[in-house]
Amino acid sequence: MGSYITQAGLEKLQAEADHLWRVERPRVTHEVSEAAALGDRSENAEYIYGKKRLREIDRRLRYLAKRMDDLTVVTPAPEQEGRVYFGAFVTVVDEKGVEVEYQLVGPDESEPGAGRLSIDSPVGKALMGKQPGDEVRVPRPRGEPGALEVLAIRYALDEDTGRS
Fold first, then answer.
1. What's the pLDDT tens digit per position in 71-86?
2. Angle, vertex CA 97, rays to CA 153 and CA 99, nearest 5
């Protein structure tokens, strides 16, 4: 079974793969061939590093290709409105009155510092299916669980992802 991803998240992975294939790999290949032309490869740091970098690029390209094959793009449906599901932007307030907006995404595009939480995270799991006014308790690394109240839910608009 594959993982879920937003269309924007898939496009980001595709852009990374494209950049590695069209820009990075040709550049490093050229650098390796220039370094090889300098002579003794056994003590040629540029050649050794270049070959290592090529292996890293190829490994990442294989990983991205395999991973993208296993991903399922999820597009929010109109009937999801008013409840938290995959792809939702959720505004919550904690017990200290701090408001934060999160987007619930798949693990491949999770960036907590940027407000993109994995649906597999404790907060992501707690928010799934909730609606405005609902309160959730979320575990903390230390101490008592925290409380979050759902204030608002919206789904991606054209300006957020280029899609509706």
1. 999 887 777 788 999 9
2. 35
pLDDT at 31 over 60: yes
Return the H-helix or E-strand segment holding 137.
strand 135-138
pTM: 0.74
Number of compact structural domains in the chain = 2
> Rounded to an integer, what distance in angstroms lies between the CA atom of residue 158 and that of residue 164?
5
Question: Half-sphere exposure of residue 66, counting CA atoms within 13 Å on the CB side?
Answer: 6
| Same domain flag for 65 and 99 | no
Q: Is residue 89 located within the same domain as residue 155?
A: yes
Read off the pLDDT of residues 134-158 as tens digits, 9 standing for 90 and up.
999 988 777 778 899 999 999 875 4
Which of 17, 47, 73 terminates a domain? The answer is 73
Please give the helix or strand (H or E) that residue 89 lies within, else none.
strand 89-94
For 30, residues 6+ apart whose C-beta sits below 8 A from its C-beta are none
What residues make up the domain containing 66?
Answer: 3-73
